[in-house]
Each structure stands twice: as structure tokens, then as C-alpha cells.
Design a protein that fits this description.
By secondary structure, this protein is an alpha+beta fold. The chain has two domains: 63-321, Beta-galactosidase, Chain A, domain 5 (Distorted Sandwich), CATH 2.70.98; 341-543, no CATH class. 38% of the residues lie in helices and 23% in strands. The chain contains twelve helices and 20 strands. Strands 1, 8, 9, 10, 11, 13, 14, 16, 17 and 20 form a ten-stranded antiparallel β-sheet that branches. A hairpin with a 3-residue loop joins β2 and β3. α6 (353-395) runs antiparallel to α8 (429-447).
């Protein structure tokens, strides 16, 4: 019974891991389009009732730009905004963000990490670029310095005028934006961006990595739209969400509307096959899809914030308004968060996340030792009872289809367990208790940004990437095999044959896993072997084996 349960446990783990790799989280279906009341209707409703979805109180807005004279510049220029967290380059052509660098992070090549993706398509829109039916706005704006940022102004003098102000926000990783548009420009949309950051080969090869997906956030949930699932333009209603934009495994680029939006358009753009570098989309002539997000205000002026940041748990919690839901460690998320805080605390002491993973795993194994000791002892007792159990089963073998005889057999077996002082579930329950911890650590080490580009030792320079020489997966496979050799053996030959296959299956699966996750599994295997040896010595079985060996040598 214990062996069957353990087999089911291992198979469940294999299925869980394979499912998380092969079957991504399904894309959220778009919310039903809602009717947006006119300003006069909104005023009437506000007089009698309270709105179902609260909208932030608009701050004093700049007056709409009047089309009275031509405004612009002859040649494009680039200006910069720099804070402790962000380094922006703003181009006057289209009055858009040409580069948005997170100062404290780098890409896989060690260059500054830019959240603006390289897209060589004429129809792509940069963040904050206006977009009309004719395509992205390419007018050259006049630029002037203002407190905390820059103001961009353009007008053709007859039919359209636009004014944008971009400032560094008071909070980390934020930008304050104000946009006014008049005439024909009042019908233009405002781009959140096209795709999000360039992904290097190492991250593309990470089986857990995602990039460039759209996300719509409410205080209650985060709705995701997978870039590969979008084949035609989608329209998301503007009311209800607190943030909308892009996310990947480690970063977000989100717009927070402070004045009402009519809707948000999600458009797919196909990159040429030559732009597909490697990784998940490395097949010959396979296209890559990027998403473009366009915000359509109910009316200009429009005011909002951009939040461009890493998925650091404490940072996202501080921002609140549902942003923390972009970082989710699965079903056992609360347990993963606790382990994350402990992992960071250990890192503060030792200064190496690889060592921190080993120490965290050791601490968990020490806490679970009483349970594992009890489980091993119970399994050993069950193993010794196997001859008597098989005798009872053989006794009723010819009548096993008879319900009454089967009930009598079970009653006789339970009586045997009672006489021998064995709990048949004693080896199962401690393993069952460990499952939440196993899954919580599994997802933590797969998705935590703390492990991104974190070195361990020698050849492992990035705990979020696979082991380049596959040394740790090979060691992990060997320790799984060794763990089976020292574990209590029971069950029929078919079950034992299945168990002998598991190290090889897991080893192949883990070849492409992040090295931090493999390091955890390897450490856990080693500690399990040590725990089993300690338990067997405590119950006297190893001493007995040694005594027999000495007697033979004499």
C-alpha cells in the first residue's frame, strides 16, 4: 500500500511538472463590451446614484489645445529623463518614448535592460505615440523643459493639435502623463506600446518564461491575453480596470488611467521570420506575434501614469490596486511568498542565492524530519508485514470478486495491523503534508525575479537559466537513483520497475529547467538520503546489517 501510494505521489509530481510545461495558462476571454455613457448621461447618473466602479477623482486638467497656429519643429531631437530607477529617452518625432531603461537591471548580454522592444515594422507604435487610422503619428513636436519633465506640442494650424507632458512620478518606476488633443487629433488613440522588451536566447530557452502578453488588472484579479492566442483585433472596455499593459515573467509595463477610457484595443502584429532569434520560436520561417495596445480616452484631456517595473513582491504589494496579482506562484502562492521572504533573508546573510536555496532546503528538511522519520519507520514496519499481508490476500484470492469475502479480507488485514501496532496510513500522511511545500518551492524557484542573473558557483552564472553543461541535472538524476537504492523497498516487481524509470524521466525533464530549481531538487534528494540513513540507524537496522557483515568477515 505504501509503495503504491509513493508511486502515485511520484507520478502526480511528474504529471504536474509536465502539465505546467506543456499546457500554459489559458488566455482570458475578453470581457463583454460595455456601453459607455455620454458625459451628460454620466452627470445625470452621478446626481442620483453612486457609480458601480469607482473612478479616481480627476486632478485639474490642462485645457484642450486650440488649433490656432502651426506648432512643431524642423528636425527630430531626443531628450532624457533620469531617476534612480528609470532612464528614458524621449523622441520629438511622435512625442514618444524611444527607450525606457530600468537602471538596476540588465539583459542577458549585460546591457541596460530596455522595456521598449525592437520592432522593425513601419506600423508599430512607440509608447505614448498617437495612432490614427493612417498609422502612428510621425509629426515632429516642439519640445520645452518643464518641472520634472518635458512638454511636447504640435499643431498643423488648421485641423489638429496635440500637447503631451511627461514627468517622472513621485513613486518609484512611475511616469506621470498628460495628453490634450483637439480637432481631428481628438479621435486618435494613445499607444501603451508594441510588445515589451527584447528577449535573449537564454530566456527564450527557459521553459517557464513568457513575454509580451497583455494584462488587464482589477483590484480582484488579473486577466491575461496571450500574444500567441490573438489573431485579430480585440476591444476591451475601458471601465473597470486599474491598470492595463504588458507583462512577462519578470517585468511589467502598465498604464494606469486617471481619467476615463472608452476602450483599449489589442492588435496583433506579425514580425518577419528573420526577426525570430531562437528558443521557443526558433523553427525555420516561423513567425513571432507581438501585441500592440492602444488606449482610447472617452475625451481629451487624458491623464494617467505609466508603471514600468520589475516583479518584485514587496514593490508590487506597495503599489497595490491589484498589480501584485501579476506575480503569482500558483495554487500555493501564500506558502511560496513566505518562502520567498525567508530566502531573501538568508541571502542577506550569505550574499549568494544558490547558497540561500541550499540553506532554505536544509531548514525545511530539518523542520520536517519528525514527519519523515515517522513515515520511514511506518514504511519499514509495513515492509516487514508484507509476507503476512500477502498470505491473507492469497487466502481470499479465489473469492476476491465476492464483496462479502473482500470485506472479510479487509477486516482480517486491519486486525493484523492492530495486533502488530502498524498504521497503514502512517507512511502516506507525512508525504501528503509535504506536497504543498513541494509545489510552493517548485513555483518559487521557477518564477522569482531574485534568481534572474543571480550567480551560484563556477559555471552557473544565472540561477534562472538552465545549467549550460547539464552537470546539476545529471547529479540530480544520480541522487534520485541512489535515493531509491537506500529507500525501503516493497511492492511487486512491476511497481519497482516503474520506480526505476523515474530518475531517468525526471532527469530528461529537468535538463532545460532553471538551474535554481534543479539545485533545490538536487539538494532535497541529498538531504532525503541522509535523513533515510539517520532513521535506519536510529531504529537499529544499519547496525544490524553492519554486525552481520563483521560476522561474515570473521
Amino acid at each position: 500500500m505504501e509503495k503504491r501510494f509513493l508511486l502515485a505521489l511520484v507520478l502526480s509530481a511528474a504529471i504536474f511538472i509536465a502539465w505546467s510545461i506543456l499546457v500554459p495558462q489559458p488566455a482570458q476571454a475578453p470581457r463583454p463590451v460595455q456601453q459607455v455613457p455620454t458625459p451628460s448621461a454620466q452627470a445625470t447618473a452621478a446626481a442620483g446614484t453612486t457609480a458601480a466602479t469607482p473612478v479616481p477623482t480627476p486632478q485639474p486638467q490642462p485645457q484642450a489645445v486650440k488649433v490656432t497656429e502651426a506648432i512643431g519643429a524642423e528636425h527630430p531631437e531626443t531628450v532624457e529623463l533620469v531617476s534612480d530607477d528609470l532612464h528614458l529617452r524621449l523622441t520629438s518625432q511622435g512625442a514618444a518614448i524611444a527607450s525606457l531603461v530600468l537602471s538596476k537591471y540588465t539583459d542577458d548580454e549585460g546591457r541596460p535592460l530596455d522595456l521598449v522592444k525592437t520592432v522593425d515594422l513601419p506600423q508599430r507604435a512607440l509608447p505614448l505615440q498617437m495612432v490614427s487610422d493612417a498609422g502612428p503619428d510621425q509629426h515632429v513636436y516642439a519640445v520645452e523643459k518643464v518641472s520634472g519633465g518635458y512638454r511636447f506640442r504640435w499643431s498643423d494650424g488648421t485641423t489638429a493639435a496635440v500637447e503631451k507632458t511627461v514627468r517622472l512620478g513621485d513613486q518609484p518606476y512611475t511616469l506621470d502623463i498628460e495628453v490634450s488633443a483637439s480637432g481631428a487629433a481628438a479621435n486618435w488613440a494613445l499607444a501603451v506600446g508594441t510588445g515589451m522588451r527584447d528577449i535573449g536566447p537564454a530566456e527564450r530557452a527557459n521553459r517557464f518564461a513568457t513575454w509580451g502578453d497583455a494584462v488587464f488588472i482589477t483590484p480582484e484579479k488579473a486577466e491575461r491575453i496571450k500574444r500567441k492566442k490573438v489573431t485579430e483585433e480585440k476591444i476591451e472596455p475601458g471601465a473597470g480596470f486599474t491598470y492595463a499593459g504588458f507583462e512577462d515573467t519578470y517585468f511589467v509595463n502598465l498604464l494606469r488611467p486617471l481619467t476615463p477610457l472608452k476602450d483599449m484595443k489589442v492588435r496583433p502584429l506579425d514580425l518577419p521570420p528573420s526577426d525570430v532569434k531562437s528558443g521557443k520560436e526558433k523553427k525555420k520561417n516561423e513567425k513571432e506575434t507581438v501585441l500592440e495596445l492602444l488606449a482610447e480616452p472617452q475625451a481629451y484631456p487624458f491623464k494617467g501614469q505609466l508603471f514600468c517595473a520589475p516583479k518584485e513582491y514587496d514593490l508590487l504589494r506597495k503599489v497595490d490596486r491589484g498589480v501584485e496579482k501579476t506575480l503569482h506562484f500558483g495554487f500555493f502562492h501564500p506558502i511560496s511568498v513566505v518562502f520567498l521572504q525567508v530566502l531573501r533573508w538568508i541571502y542577506g546573510l550569505v550574499g549568494n542565492y544558490g547558497v540561500a536555496i541550499i540553506l532554505l532546503t536544509l531548514a525545511i528538511r530539518l523542520l520536517l524530519f519528525p514527519l519523515m522519520h515517522s513515515s520511514t519507520v511506518s514504511m519499514r514496519k509495513m515492509q516487514k508485514l508484507q509476507p503476512k499481508v500477502k498470505a491473507i490476500q492469497e487466502k481470499y484470492r479465489k473469492n476476491k470478486s465476492d464483496p462479502q469475502m473482500r470485506a472479510k479480507m479487509n477486516q482480517e488485514m486491519m486486525e493484523l495491523y492492530k495486533v502488530e501496532g502498524v498504521n497503514p496510513m502512517g507512511g502516506c500522511l507525512p508525504m501528503l503534508i509535504q506536497l504543498p511545500i513541494l509545489w510552493a518551492l517548485y513555483t518559487l524557484f521557477a518564477y522569482a525575479i531574485e534568481l534572474r542573473h543571480a550567480p551560484f558557483i563556477f559555471w552557473i552564472h544565472d540561477l534562472s537559466a538552465k545549467d549550460p553543461y547539464y552537470i546539476t541535472p545529471i547529479l540530480m538524476t544520480f541522487t534520485m537513483w541512489l535515493q531509491q537504492k537506500v529507500a525501503p523497498q516493497a511492492g511487486d516487481p512491476k511497481q519497482q520497475k516503474m520506480f526505476r524509470m523515474m530518475p531517468l524521466i525526471f532527469g530528461i525533464m529537468f535538463l532545460g529547467f532553471p538551474s535554481g530549481l534543479v539545485l533545490y531538487w538536487l539538494t532535497n534528494n541529498v538531504l532525503t538520503i541522509i535523513q533515510q540513513e539517520v532513521t535506519l540507524r536510529l531504529i537499529g537496522e544499519r547496525q544490524k546489517s553492519g554486525a552481520k557483515g563483521k560476522g561474515k568477515r570473521k
